[in-house]
Design brief:
The complex is a heterodimer of chains A (247) and B (121).
Chain A lengths: L4 E2 L6 E2 L12 H29 L21 H4 L13 H25 L3 H31 L4 E2 L5 E2 L12 H33 L2 H5 L3 H26 L1
Antiparallel strand pairs in A: 1-2, 3-4
Helix pairs in contact in A: 1-5, 1-7, 3-4, 3-7, 4-5, 5-7
Chain B lengths: L18 H27 L4 H22 L7 H41 L2
Amino acid sequence: MATTAVIDEKEKRSLWGGGVEPLKASYGKLMMWFFLLSDALTFSGLLVTYGLSRFANNAYTGKIEDFVPSADYWPIPEKVFTHIPFTHDPYPLVFVGIMTFILIMSSVTMVLAVEAGHRMDKEEVLKWMLWTIIGGIAFLGCQAWEWTIFIIGDKGRMLADGTMFYGANLHNNEYGPVLFADCFFFITGFHGTHVLSGVIINMIVFYNVAIGTYERVGHYEMVEKVGLYWHFVDLVWVFVFTFFYLV
Amino acid sequence: MGHGHHTTAHAPKVLPKDKEKIKKIWMTALILAVVTAIEFLLAFTIDRGVLLTSIFVLLTFVKSFYIVAEFMHLKYETKTLIWSVVIPTLFIVWLIVALLVEGEAILYVRNLWQWYAGLVK
């Protein structure tokens, strides 16, 4: 990498010689970006595994209206994820759409919090971060409900020994091959853990904003850094939502 | 440690809101919402297949571009930082293609074996 020499009267300082920020980003921000890159690779590994599992199983080839869950072919997501709280009719993919909306909105409020931080507007930062935290907690609640419904099951399936099995766990799946349930739990669980840790970190930063830590420090860059993490969590959900529920 | 007691330093000056920036944030949010709505619409109107999957992947890529470039501000960072984040993710594209092909190969072998096992009872 060619060094860019900044000619100074007193000393020659090159761009990569140390003591300056070559990428114009602080250490903390840079490390957050590289951590997110590594996390992106982890999630990609998991999602690609889901793709591999799906392609390694037969696809359902009949008409969608005639779909019946079976271990012989991969389930159709819009036939599996059809429940909404407080209703009993099937509404395919509506609930997951609500979850996506909540998470994207919480990302928007996070950007607004960062923007307020740039202007040193403590009250606005608190307001927008609070909405972000509420959005995160709402998403976690929704995900917990989704898991519960998935585990409890719907119409059940007759096993080889004649007993009815309802729901899904890591050994049995009424909706289709067990691998579908395994991937669902692992990927959405790993993502949910990230949302949880993001909510906790947001709460810690919220507390620090409230007691004036960043006014003393002189900048709200910490809000920006946790904002990066939160947007990453939202980004992963966009991919999970597409590959699990839509495709 | 500043736990609530007032120091002699005054609070930093709060700058006024930049209407343009805030409008841009909400515009990006609107774009994301519209693209998601389109995805939902397509999910219920077009049959599953290679075309639909490709459209979904494309729209997801559009959404991720807006989230990373605008919300995470990457578009406004230095070129070197942008490339050091983007280039490794290109390897993921290779990973996806490779493993989907592998998955199909596994299915082929699995079906072949089942057929063979059915023949030689």
